[in-house]
Amino acid sequence: MLAAGVAGWSALAAAGAFPASEQVFPATTRLWCSMPDVHGLSAAFDRTEYGQLTKDPAMKPFVESLRGQIRDAGSQRLARLGLSLEDLETIPGGELAFAAIEPQPGVLATVLLVDTTGHEGETTAIIERVVARLDEQKATRLPAVAVTAEGAVVHVFQLAADPRDRPDRPRKVAIVQLPHALVVGDHPAVVAQTAGTLAEGRADNLASLPAYQAVAERCGSKVAAGSAPLRWFVDPLGFAKAYQGANPPREKKKGPDYVAILGRQGFDAVRGLGGVALFDDGQYQLRHHTLIYAPPLPGRKPFSPDRFNLAARMLEFPNAASVEPPAWVPREVGSWMALQWDMRAAFRSAESLVDDVVGEKGVFDDVIASLKEDPDGPQIDVESELVNCLGQRVSVVSDYATPIDTDSERLVIAIEATDEESVRKAVAKSMSTDRDMRKVEFEGHVIWEQIDHSDAIPQLEIETPGLARRHADDEDDDSRGRRRVREREEKLLPHSAVTVAKGHLLIASHRDFLERVLATSGDESSLAGSADYTIVAAEVARLFPGSIALRSFGRTDRTVRPAYEMLRRGEMPKSKSLTGQLLNAILGDGKEGSVRRQRIDGSTLPEFETIQRYFGTAGAGMEAVENGWYVAGVALRGPDREPEMARGPVSSVGR
């Protein structure tokens, strides 16, 4: 079964000028992406509404501008190799594959492999253009290296010095043209090795890895012969470590090394993930299949609570017979997702992770103890009074409020409560001692809302003899820790609101959205009764006819619109949404209070209403399997949407 799955997977690219790229790239490949039929994939994409969107006359100014931005962005991988997207549109005659390879610790090599069968003349012309570009960039030509008996050589260029470069690792570009192939990369030895193994492949290849084989077995059968898929694989922690070693920060950053922490805490149990995506397969705009490969450690049983070590044991997502939206999920939301998660296992496994992040053993236990014993605190036993009263279902509902601005996105996280009254009491005890939370009532429900201090007026502080004012420097460790946590919470969710209702602990980004949830009674007002959800749910059920650990539904116009408007106005870096803050954390300079520069100029984007028709619905599911988790999903066309869904959300009033 395994051999058949891998063989079928590789056969998608095996009819070209060289073996499938997974048989050419080495076992030290950390990231891989393959398009066995580039032109077929492009044609399939063009038939989808996504493809039609890019060709809409209203989008032409932005598409042309984006192409120019990508072409001019020197930090892009293709640009660093002297290539452009236009170069790669004409030369593929078969597979086009990209890989990030770790030839030695701390080094990450980029390699592009193209089957140029039938396009040898165009390939020669492109190489001439690439060489001309490198000459314009003042690149230095280094001695060529022979790699095949037929006389093929690797042409090597050392790029001009750049402030971003490490002094001991000058940037290079290596190019070799074979009779029916082109290999380009930034590591001459890896390019030469790739070119030298093209004829027959290599034994210690990517396809020899158990993680890759598991992905191929699970996802390979989902691709019909003659399809034009996008295939991919990544060793997540291996890639993160290699990237970190190859791209050290210019300035030493304070704080924990999360990559190292994840490795120490057992998350290297996730040994790989990958899958396949297909556009316009005859039924769906997009269909994708992914396996997250995390087999139990040696000597341990699948699905057992101890199949992983330390904090990785919180990766406990048990299957359920059914996962459906509760009656309180409003009908008109942008997206809904529900996940089965063993909260008790997650809590028990969090101790070593928290201690590792803080850098001090015992911190987690101290915090839990202080919450129970501190006379000025809530005095709750977190495990017995809260965690043990929670179930295994976590739901996330999102939407946006109008008018759209940097604070328009809305979010509710709902955790199932098996003992609602006990959870309500625990929340009340915790919130009533927090001076930053205020109590609000709504239709018989008690809501605890965080006070927004962002526009607070500075208060005059008067020191009275005999009454010393406590200074931040006088705080004990616990007080300083709580203050830092509060500052992070206020930045992440400055308007958060919490309540216990409808059998769940509900945590919202904004009170107005929480009130919408509380006011939803079911039937015609809930998501489960909408026609577009019913259609998508039926398609997801076809992918997962048995038990399931996760199910999601989304109306893509509503999920992308806030980010679209922020991008169009050039305000995405100012977005207060979780997505915006995540982008700022990844793309920013890491300095407190600084606002990053928006990387993409969206000023030429048209009004959203002119292109809204191109966005349909999507759904996905996840199943816990013996060697990890299997994820699959589909995207449907716009006509499957209900007419009233296009009217947009109700404007928010207050918060």
Which spans have pLDDT < 50 for at least 5 consecutive residues? 456-475, 479-490, 640-655
> Which class best fits the helix and strand makeup?
alpha+beta
Put simply, the count of helices is: 20
Kindly give the count of domains: 2
Strand content: 15-25%
Radius of gyration: 27 Å
Can you offer a commentary on this structure?
- α10 (236-246) runs antiparallel to α11.
- The termini are far apart.
- This protein has a 20-stranded antiparallel beta sheet, sandwiched between helices.
- The chain has 2 domains: 2-236, no CATH class; 329-452 and 476-526 and 564-590 and 598-616 and 637-647, no CATH class.
- A hairpin with a 2-residue loop joins β6 (172-178) and β7 (181-185).
- It has helices at residues 2-11, 38-47, 49-55, 60-72, 77-80, 85-90, 120-136, 188-196, 210-220, 236-246, 258-264, 343-358, 363-373, 382-386, 420-432, 477-492, 511-519, 531-543, 556-569, 578-587; strands spanning 29-35, 96-101, 109-115, 140-146, 153-158, 172-178, 181-185, 230-234, 272-279, 286-293, 335-340, 390-400, 409-417, 437-442, 445-450, 497-501, 504-508, 550-555, 617-625, 628-636.
- By secondary structure, the protein is of the alpha+beta class.
- The model is unreliable at 456-475, 479-490 and 640-655 (pLDDT under 50).
Topology diagram in text:
Elements: H1 2-11, E1 29-35, H2 38-47, H3 49-55, H4 60-72, H5 77-80, H6 85-90, E2 96-101, E3 109-115, H7 120-136, E4 140-146, E5 153-158, E6 172-178, E7 181-185, H8 188-196, H9 210-220, E8 230-234, H10 236-246, H11 258-264, E9 272-279, E10 286-293, E11 335-340, H12 343-358, H13 363-373, H14 382-386, E12 390-400, E13 409-417, H15 420-432, E14 437-442, E15 445-450, H16 477-492, E16 497-501, E17 504-508, H17 511-519, H18 531-543, E18 550-555, H19 556-569, H20 578-587, E19 617-625, E20 628-636
Antiparallel strand pairs: 1-2, 1-8, 2-3, 3-7, 4-5, 5-6, 6-7, 8-9, 9-10, 10-20, 11-12, 11-18, 12-13, 13-17, 14-15, 15-16, 16-17, 18-19, 19-20
Helix pairs in contact: 1-9, 2-3, 10-11
